[in-house]
Design a protein that fits this description.
By secondary structure, this protein is mainly alpha-helical. Helices cover about 65% and strands about 0% of the residues. Helix 1 crosses helix 3 and helix 4 packs parallel to helix 6.
Length: about 180
């Protein structure tokens, strides 16, 4: 058994976490990680132990898995690896506070993921719209973007963003009328 695997299990045990078979995870083929994570990542204790693991494969899989517990994603949002951070930014379970922390890094790849986040906080989506035209376009395309933000983007200096925002507002208003 490798030292980092033992350290991960000891850390988990010290925090009172019950962790299933993390000692064998390094030897597990990548294609077997998905079903293993499907079964366990929704558990807070397992997800937190994975977030503290030293194997980059485990960190990346934990960061991107849609079932990862939000607390583990908050912990991973402080990681040093940019690819881990990008995957955390794109995870639908990433909490709003962690999304805001990631935005502070001012990394375009991370901001693209945040702009497309299905649960992006309105204030963050508004900030993202001002980063650059490419990210503003991603904000316009995001169904979670509030109409108020889209209306502001109707006045964007880039014609393709203002047109896309106008079309998004029209589409949402038509959908609202259909539902009413």
């Amino acid at each position: 058994m490798k030292v980092e695997q033992l350290d991960c299990e000891r850390m988990a045990a010290a925090k009172g976490m019950r962790v299933p078979a993390l000692k064998n995870i390094r030897a597990m083929p990548y294609e077997q990680l998905e079903p293993f994570f499907d079964k366990h990542l929704h558990k807070k204790s397992f997800a937190q132990a994975c977030a503290a693991h030293s194997d980059l494969r485990v960190l990346l899989k934990t960061a991107e898995h849609p079932g990862t517990h939000p607390d583990a994603l908050s912990a991973l949002a402080k990681h040093e690896d940019i690819e881990v951070l990008r995957r955390v930014a794109g995870n639908p379970n990433t909490p709003s506070d962690a999304q805001r922390e990631l935005f502070e890094l001012q990394d375009d790849d991370i901001n693209i993921e945040l702009a497309q986040h299905p649960k992006g906080p309105p204030d963050l989506l508004e900030k993202l719209a001002g980063v650059n035209p490419y990210i503003a376009k991603k904000v316009v395309e995001n169904p979670a973007t509030p109409i108020a933000v889209l209306r502001k983007l109707e006045g964007h200096k880039e014609w393709y963003i203002s047109n896309a925002a106008r079309e998004a507002v029209e589409k949402r208003e038509a959908e609202a009328k259909t539902r009413a």
